[in-house]
Amino acid sequence: MIARRRLLPALATFVVALGIQAGCVGVFGVTGTLHDAVFEMCQCPALQPVQSCRETLTSRLDSANVAVRSAWLDRYVQECLECANAPICLSESPTCSLDKCTIDAECCSLSDAGKATCESSHCKQP
Amino acid sequence: MKRGLPLVAAMIASGALSAPARADDNAAAEALFQQAKTLTEQQRYDEACPKFAASYKLDRTLGTLLNLADCEEHLGHVASAWAHWGEAVELAQKAGDKRDAFATTHRDALVKRLPMLQLDIAAPSATLEVFRDGVKIDSAAYGVPLPSDPGGHVVTVRRGGETLVEKRVVVREGETSALALDLVAIEKAAPPPAAAYDAPPSGLRTGGFVLAGVGAATILAAAGLEIAAIVNKSAADSPDACVQKHCTPVGIGVAQRANTFATAGQWVGIGGIVMAAVGVSLYIASPGRRAAPRPAAPVTVSGWILPGTGGISVQGAL
């Protein structure tokens, strides 16, 4: 009887702890499908010509500072979830290029004079 | 009895003056005897008898014994008187004292008046003893009518120093009262306590302790994993990593790490809690040092796990 009285609170504690523990993943909100913006963008037909699209864009994003990367991601979510708009985000910093390129959309436009173009695998400002 | 009184008084004188058993007890015995004698003359037998008995204990003379028997007879303690008259007969006959006839007459006159108490013991027990007024009754006396002084008597059944049953019996002159006792039933009603023993720490208890310790360590490890999950989740929640579930490749990696740590922490934690619960249950349920042994109680541990939550139940007769 004494053992039972001692055991019940212990059991109750364990059950509560187990319930809390089991809910950790849910509580942390780390469940659900996440989308890789670069991967999905590179799947779009307009970006198929981009050489090593995924690796190239990933490298450019990683080398950018936090503010630039945040701005790019924010714009991607707002404008580029559809493939038709993928070139718009590609031509934004930091995914755009000032040097080597495969398509016009890959080149950063530095001025309002017009869009840069890709000529002979190199970006050319208007 | 009135005729006997002067005779007894005369015998007292000769008896009291006979040689005491031990010289150093003589004075005390004599003093007690004289006091008792005075009380007897005042017919204060209830006070006189104990003093005669005390005197006789110090100096076992026939005269004192005769006075003691006479005193008890006056007091109505016929069984005690009968026994002392008988003892006096033997003492007188051994000594060649002619007062044996006087003692015999008194002893025989009491036979018909003797109250008897008969203890009918249905099933003698090796561990239980029967006492009458605090004096142990030998098992050979079970079922035998025993002379007892009139009045109330207390019969007890004891195991060691513990009194299990106490009965009061009233016996009257010339009657036999019987008291039936079933020692087996008494023993069954009050079984002896389980012997305390120095049980070595049982394997179950030690196992429970170790399991609870491992469980606690596992829970700590789970806490570490959960902390790692929280850190990674914070990184994944930064605006340069993920926005509305859309992430940069780095953000994806960080979020996946957070999920991995959280999931690992969850299952490791559940495992730790289960181990700790089972360990503590075994530790509590297993017989400990100085505890009475008890049959092993089966302990059933069952768990349930659902997405996002879970539970455990431990059942068993404790």
Strand segment tally of chain A: 3
Percentage beta strand of chain B? 15-25%
Helix vs. strand class of chain B = alpha+beta
Determine the mean pLDDT of chain A: 83
Would you summarize the structure shown here?
Chain A is mostly helical. Chain A has helices spanning 2-22, 24-28, 37-42, 53-63, 66-79, 86-90; strands at residues 35-36, 117-119, 122-124. Chain B has 318 residues and is an alpha+beta fold.
Descriptive terms for the model:
A: 126 residues; mainly alpha; two-stranded antiparallel ribbon; B: 318 residues; 3-stranded mixed β-sheet; 11 strands; rod-shaped; disordered N terminus
3D structure, described in words:
The complex is a heterodimer of chains A (126) and B (318). With 126 residues, chain A is mostly helical. Helix content of chain A is 49%, strand content 6%. Chain A has helices at residues 2-22, 24-28, 37-42, 53-63, 66-79, 86-90, and strands at residues 35-36, 117-119, 122-124. Chain A starts with a helix and ends with a strand. The mean pLDDT of chain A is 83. Chain B has 318 residues and is α+β, with helices and mostly antiparallel strands. Helix content of chain B is 53%, strand content 19%. At the A-B interface, helix 1, helix 2, strand 1, helix 3 and helix 4 of A face helix 8, strand 8, strand 9, helix 9 and strand 11 of B. Strand 1 of chain A pairs parallel with strand 9 (246-247) of chain B.
Please specify the SSE layout and strand pairing:
The complex is a heterodimer of chains A (126) and B (318).
Chain A: H1 2-22, H2 24-28, E1 35-36, H3 37-42, H4 53-63, H5 66-79, H6 86-90, E2 117-119, E3 122-124
Antiparallel strand pairs in A: 2-3
Chain B: H1 4-16, H2 23-41, H3 45-58, H4 62-75, H5 78-95, H6 100-110, E1 116-121, E2 129-132, E3 135-137, E4 145-147, E5 151-159, E6 162-171, E7 176-181, H7 183-189, H8 203-236, E8 242-243, E9 246-247, H9 249-285, E10 299-306, E11 309-316
Parallel strand pairs in B: 1-7
Antiparallel strand pairs in B: 1-4, 2-3, 2-5, 5-6, 8-9, 10-11
Helix pairs in contact in B: 1-4, 2-3, 3-4, 4-5, 5-6, 8-9
